[in-house]
Design brief:
Blueprint lengths: L9 E6 L7 H12 L11 E13 L2 E9 L4 E10 L6 H22 L2 E9 H6 L3 H9 L2 E5 L3 H8 L10 H14 L11 E2 L3 E2 L1 H5 L6 H6 L3 H16 L3 E5 L7 H16 L2 E5 L5 H15 L10 H19 L16 E4 L7 H8 L5 E5 L5 H4 L5 H13 L4 E4 L15 E3 L16 H18 L11 E5 L8 H14 L10 E6 L8 H15 L7 E5 L4 H10 L2 E4 L9 H7 L4 E4 L14 E4 L4 H13 L1 H13 L7 H15 L10 E2 H8 L18
Parallel strand pairs: 2-5, 5-6, 9-10, 9-11, 11-12, 12-13, 13-14, 14-21, 15-16, 15-18, 16-17, 18-19, 19-20
Antiparallel strand pairs: 1-4, 2-3, 3-4, 7-8
Helix pairs in contact: 2-4, 9-23, 10-23, 11-15, 16-19, 17-21, 23-24
GO molecular function: glycosyltransferase activity
Protein name: Glycosyl transferase family 1 domain-containing protein
Subunit structure: Homodimer.
């Protein structure tokens, strides 16, 4: 029989792919990649979608079909027969299937010089090989969408005289490819799904399967995982319904965190939902202005009128009455089918708190503030900040728990100490922003970036002939973009005697959000600053607003030399931890929660706001001192806390729900929720385990 570890399944190719890319085109594309140190990185790849299906021929054999679709027509297919091993465990056979399909698709994309954006995976195949979807996502950067086959219905629509089942696995695979394609938007991204009651259906209500629980377990340290499982069991056993409310379903940090959190909790079987209001651009203009007022980044004469504040309140009331107060709606009392725990996850929506309190006086309500609220401005009599805050506080004070980024100066003195807990923003190591991508996919996204720059009429990134620094952030008045440009200009002066190829470029980029109307204004101000004050750097600074593809930002962060975050005002800015996780030294300001993430002199450098000379010198040192760079890169990569990752975030939310639901009480008393959760689970932090510094939160 042979060693089970070395046995492989028998593969019979019943029909192989027959389409071919012209040999000249293929050789030319591969040649460009191999010469990437002498030409601009970025390969033009044909964009395809795939469908993958499976049929059992016998208990020991399956047929798999792979169909390839170009967005208009099917262009190719293959059918392979895989003989399985009765002596092998079920998981090993399923791994064989996944291994074979991953290999076939990997070879296909290189032979055909293409990028397969997504794949329709037949439900039967997903059950047979549960690891396939996450491997397609993590290894080949393909979005796997699980679809069902309904051949009987399809046949009945055609004719009553044909057989009742379609037995050809290639036809079923082709159907899966078309179903996958139908779920894509013109942006070549899966559509955002908003369903009944304006509920955000994360990952197309679970049709997209990016990860497995094994993937998440490997992404954190064992104590974190054990603590999470304790609270998962309690929340699931008690059948708790947990509901989040926030202003937007996509485009900002809150939305990114919620997509990641619900993706993970859905795999755990937790009943958690997320609702958003119907968007109103005029209201978003007001809420963004209020945000800037509370941070102190607007001129003194900018104020929110009583009419503005009344408009926000009415917007929330209208949405609550229309979507969330009906039968079994999330704001109904728990005994009427409503949520057991209500979480208001956005300072734009505090007016929901009194509504939720009225519907169920004893139900726990959590309010999370993710912005800086300057207490000095709030306490100033007659100030614009005081006016906005008092309006918000009249609703917020009715919540049981007030969560804030772990910076004491972000929280006005009105907030009672016993209700206040610290909870940082988080990211996800397995999503499109952070996962590791291979060279093939990085080249594809750099080509997309190059096309975007060309379409916007801005300079091209010259990587790899020249390295580059980056700041990835919204075009927002608090992000310190002018400071980044001035610091870079000083760096270039320090490097004036070096040839151009040795001087890094600067990339300023970010996504936009529907509730952020400042983006275009700040972008224009940035371009004008470069044109008027640094015309000699026009070809060296790439300022680009990007579409909704997280992987483009991932590619930029993966290949940059140093990440910058020179915010003048900041909440937590988890983009800093994302850079550190990729081994990128970070130069950042002493603003908000940023100092909690960067260890000065170890994983990066912290500077005072507006200290352009210090930033320039640190950039110069990192570029010219190889040992310093490598030491910082290694330290950064290995010292990121689980707290800033999805599983660590889930731990805090599960602990809060478990501790508050059913009439229980909880008093954080200005403690980190993560610490409380770990201790209550019997998994306190161990010596040497990375965690964010606690002393900086007060």
């Amino acid at each position: 029989m042979g060693d089970p570890a070395t046995r492989r399944p028998s593969i019979v190719v019943q029909r192989d792919f027959v389409s071919h890319v012209p040999e000249y085109h293929r050789r030319r594309s591969l040649s460009i990649q191999q010469q990437s140190d002498s030409v601009d990185i970025g390969t033009s790849l044909s964009e395809f979608w795939a469908g993958i299906a499976i049929q059992e021929e016998s208990p020991r054999a399956v047929k798999v079909g792979i169909a390839v679709h170009d967005g208009t027509y099917s262009v190719d297919f293959a059918v392979h027969r895989i003989s399985l091993d009765d002596d092998q465990e079920k998981d090993e056979n399923s791994d064989w299937i996944a291994d074979h399909l991953i290999t076939q698709l990997s070879v296909y994309r290189k032979e055909h010089v293409c990028k397969i954006l997504g794949a329709g995976i037949l439900l039967d195949l997903h059950k047979k090989s549960p690891s396939l979807c996450s491997r397609l996502w993590l290894e080949l950067d393909m979005v796997p969408i699980v679809v069902e086959s309904n051949p009987v219905l399809q046949v009945q629509r055609i004719s009553k005289n044909v057989p009742k089942l379609l037995n050809n696995v290639d036809e079923i695979a082709d159907s899966a490819a078309r179903k996958c394609l139908a779920l894509y938007a013109p942006t070549k991204q899966p559509r955002l799904a908003i369903s009944y009651r304006n509920q955000v259906e994360v990952d197309l209500a679970g049709m997209i399967q990016l990860t497995t629980l094994d993937d998440y377990e490997k992404s954190v340290r064992p104590p974190t995982w054990r603590a999470v499982q304790k609270y998962v069991k309690d929340v699931v056993d008690r059948k708790l319904r947990i509901v989040f409310f926030s202003a937007t379903p996509q485009g900002g940090g809150v939305a990114l965190m919620r997509h990641a959190l619900l993706r993970f909790l859905d795999l755990q079987g937790v009943n958690v939902e997320w609702f958003v209001p119907k968007p109103r651009p005029d209201v978003f203009r007001i809420t963004k202005t209020n945000h800037n007022i509370l941070q102190g980044v607007v001129p003194p004469d900018v104020r929110a009128t009583d009419g503005h504040l009344a408009k926000i309140k009415q917007w929330i009331i209208d949405n609550a009455e229309r979507y969330w107060l009906g039968e079994e709606g999330p704001l109904r009392a728990p005994e009427e089918g409503g949520a057991d725990v209500v979480i208001i996850d956005d300072p734009q929506m505090p007016e929901l708190i009194p509504i939720a309190r009225k519907m169920s006086p004893e139900r726990p309500i959590i309010f999370r503030s993710h912005i800086e609220v300057r207490d000095d401005l709030v306490r100033e009599d007659g100030s614009a900040a005081q006016h906005v805050w008092r309006n918000m506080w009249s609703s917020i004070k009715q919540a049981d728990i007030f969560l804030s980024h772990p910076v004491r100066s972000f929280v006005p003195n009105d907030v009672r100490k016993e209700t206040l807990g610290w909870l940082p923003a988080t990211t996800d190591w397995l999503d499109g922003l952070n996962k590791t991508m291979d060279e093939w996919d990085l080249q594809y996204y750099f080509h997309v970036l190059r096309q975007t720059c060309q379409a916007q009429g801005i300079p091209q990134l010259a990587y790899p002939q020249r390295g580059f620094f980056t700041q990835i952030a919204r075009f927002d008045p608090s992000k310190g973009i002018p400071d980044v440009i001035e610091s870079y200009a000083k760096f270039c002066k320090l490097m004036k005697d070096e040839p151009k190829r040795n001087i890094q470029q600067l990339v300023l980029c970010g996504h936009s959000s529907v509730d952020d109307p400042d983006g275009s204004l700040i972008y224009d101000q940035t371009m004008n600053l470069i044109l008027r004050h640094h015309p000699d750097l026009i070809e060296d600074i790439v300022v680009v607003r990007l579409g909704p593809s997280d992987q483009i930002l991932n590619a930029i962060m993966s290949l940059c030399t140093v990440a910058l975050q020179l915010s003048t005002r900041e909440g937590f800015e988890v983009k800093v931890s994302e850079a550190l996780h990729k081994g990128k030294p970070v130069i950042a300001t002493l603003a908000g929660g940023i100092p909690l993430q960067v260890e000065h002199g170890k994983s990066g450098f912290l500077v005072r706001r507006g200290d352009h000379d210090a930033v320039a010198q640190h950039l110069y040192d990192l570029v010219n001192d190889y040992d310093l760079y490598e030491r910082m890169s290694e330290y950064a990569m290995t010292h990121v806390s689980d707290e800033v990752q999805t599983v660590g975030n889930a731990l805090s939310w599960l602990y809060l729900a478990s501790s508050l639901a059913g009439g229980k009480t909880l008093k954080p008393n200005e403690r980190w929720i993560n610490d409380m959760a770990r201790e209550a689970a019997g998994e306190p932090y161990e010596d040497g385990e990375p965690r964010l510094p606690r002393h900086l939160s007060t």
